[in-house]
């Protein structure tokens, strides 16, 4: 790689040709403040906080965008730079609501941090606040344009990463606002409710719909039997809410914490993840044997479901009819578990701890009431659970490790890896191979479907049939796979789609920050969880076997069909 | 070919159109036919003469007699008297305020004496809808000549001419073409920036209305020079007449093989397409223009990369202003040496200015670079009307600075106006007399930028809002000295920090008015007095010392 030498703040710095001033400075340990910059995104250079002096240039240059050159002389701390940086920050603050104390992003806000870092003490500019009503139409997300600094990180996420394009700058100049087309509410747009925008947002302009109040209320109601389930991905992320490094495995502490909050039973979504493999695996086998619609898409990611309903309704028959593990769990808790425990299902309140904002939308879908009640009553994201635990004063890091309750707390390593992209595919292949061949799978770890590559492929020979599988994560990749399928150019049997980049460990409800580097560490952790489990194949889960014996009968049986499977709705691409 | 004993040229620029030129022209044709002069006298629509204030204007050749403010009712007398009996119609002749007698003919006019018409060489002379008339004036010979040269030779000639971009930035045109030529890539584009959005600027419109082929010819030359086979003209949607004439000109050029395949049997192919803008000021910025052309929200891109490397549709692109392009054919035919005899050493050639505001002769002029503001205002513009005094001139449009009387002798070119804290910009000259309140004027400019900021970068989006709010406060009598300091600090930041020139120049009119008219600001702030009585919230009269 060819290198150049430049001077930054009087220090000679070597940097790769083509690097930006920001990259060169950071590598040399010189910190230039930023706001719109995001390590996983294209350079936007719109906040101008990172402006620096480049000798020979009349104007200041944005360090995040300006390429280094041989002999370049850069000053990041001149009086002119400091004045500009401060003035720009004061301009932002002048129109930003001073509601930090009530804000969901209090103490985890990039604007707040920047103001503290640059020591903003004065407010010289008039407070010309934006007059916007928060958009609360979505069951998953709340958008408050008044808090938006129009950095456009959510725009890139929504358009490029997710291929949805609901969020876009509309209007001009000081009236510019990031919003769905025609300033409609998110509910009326083609929003997948994935919440990736809430991860990208540096402030509190897009946050999750808060269910904590609902959950506190249920926990405080003596008539309610409050049951909680924890999604696979949450056991490797919740620690970050308490300052633990990304990739910390906190399964035992999570269970202990939930008990201390007062949940009557702490169960695990991993249990129904194993159940999903049984149902979905048999569904795939049936489709292959009986000439059903192929390829079959997985259906556990509700953002993906909403996306395909809007953008590829013609492919709905390709979707597995299996409910997601969250919804299977709710349906079973209010039937099988209620019956077994002799509790009136009307008194059971099911709470999910999810990495996901779309799960809130999913829980509210009218189809999800097969038990006669809402399968799931409240959905808490990792971030909301963090808030409840802090409110309860629970010192998370010092908690002992505890075990899940029986029976719906027993799971396998195959269920845990549902939390990472490729995990459902890997779990399904582990089971499909053994069920169909009757032989044990020699190497359980199907690494071809792991990792952060956007689209991954694998082929496994099962009884002479080469099963071709594809895995996509992030809706832009889902779109590519859908287009292939739509055009008849995909000869896959089975396609796993996870709405969020990296899978659920990178879900829109996960702790902030969530970057690709952090996603990778969470993925590493989830595979560690898998390796540490005594059972690593879904069909070997003893409680799942019992469930079939005692209650469901057989996969794809009458009861399964009624409780564990669902249907989909073709939605408009351009809502009226 | 027919010969006529007289030609009646009716200006068909937009300004004269607004004053009813079409009805006058039709009445002239009817009257001439009616008097049986149809075989002897020809009526022609031409581009702008420049004296827009005096429209509709008519020039009758061979004498070159100029008639102003002609109406349909005047037509029978004009035909009967001038064309039939050979007597000039005294009452319709142009009267200069400084001269007791009416001016009879075009060459006699002070308005034209200091003007040198290179860009406007055909405006007001030929029928813009006639490619034959353009060719009759030597049109398309530059293209023929260029195609016989190597592209590098064409670029060398443009470089040698010293021509600099007339859109406002003043970048050397030849150098830009050289970058475009050297940029790797098979597909390249030539784009003509006709999104003239600077308030008070209408030169590009009148060039396109008066001589559309000049721009087409230049674009083809640029295409040959850089290796592009396709060009786009991005033009303001409001410029309906320019659009019509361009479309017609493109059709004519295609018909004669001057656009299209194998032009002049050279093997070179070039075609042009007109694209219409939707009215955002920022789309005059070249990269925002590309975004708009590509069908996206018009917002400037980060530079580098520059358009010559990554331009329209990601391809190397040379983008030139209308006036810049109109200079190209004469440079090719007459040579770089000739071009350098005009203007200043660092800014050779002429500049087209649009004169507006408190000035006798509002209109379009073309003068050598380096002419002083004083010459333009008093010798060409005819001075300040209604007995008022000159107060200031804003050069370069809304994003330019405001110059006081003390700077009337600054030679006007890119470098010298920049040194004075203003800009040559697009060539708009807005003259204001002493009845205008400088703070109120600054407020209007600030409001313009508040409206036109694209909203992409923070210092411009938020800065234009606060700047307007601060200046507006002063006109309402709530301003303080701290506000003035804050305006200065904000202006300093806006001058250097925004992403594109829109934000960077937005504070210029505020900075220059504050610099040159500080006392007037202080009267508003300290004594709550507006010396001109414009700001109604304040007292009128002169501030006590």
Could you characterize what this model shows?
The complex is a heterodimer of chains A (576) and B (545). In chain A, 56% of the residues are buried. Chain A has helices at 21-27, 79-94, 110-117, 153-161, 196-200, 212-219, 251-261, 269-290, 302-311, 325-341, 358-363, 382-391, 413-416, 423-437, 475-486, 516-532, 542-552, 558-563, and strands at residues 3-8, 11-16, 51-54, 61-62, 73-75, 141-143, 168-170, 177-179, 206-208, 225-230, 265-268, 296-297, 348-354, 378-381, 455-462, 465-473, 494-498. Chain A is an alpha/beta fold and 576 residues long. In chain A, strand 13, helix 11 (358-363) and strand 14 form a beta-alpha-beta unit. The model of chain A has no long low-confidence stretch (mean pLDDT 96). Chain B has 545 residues and is of the alpha/beta class. Chain B contains 22 helices and 16 strands. In chain B, the strands form four sheets. Chain B has a five-stranded mixed beta sheet with strand order 7-8-6-5-9. In chain B, strands 11-10-14-12-13 form a five-stranded mixed beta sheet. Chain A binds chain B through residues 43, 45-49, 51, 58-60, 62, 65-67, 80, 83-84, 87-88, 91-92, 94-95, 124-126, 128, 149-150, 168-169, 171-176, and chain B through 280, 297, 302, 304, 450-459, 461-466, 469-470, 482, 486, 489-490, 492-493, 495-499, 504.
Provide the domain count of chain B.
4
Number of domains in the coordinates of chain A? Answer: 2
CATH architecture of the largest domain in chain A: 3-Layer(aba) Sandwich
CATH topology of the largest domain in chain B: Rossmann fold
Low-confidence stretches of chain A: none
Briefly, what CATH class of the largest domain in chain A?
A: Alpha Beta
Helicity of chain A, as a percent range: 25-40%
- N/C terminus separation of chain A: 53 Å
Strand portion of chain B, in percent?
15-25%
How many beta-strand segments of chain B? 16
What is the mean predicted local confidence, pLDDT of chain A? 96
Uncertain ranges of chain B: none
The biggest beta sheet of chain B is recorded as:
5 strands, mixed
Main beta sheet of chain A: 5 strands, mixed
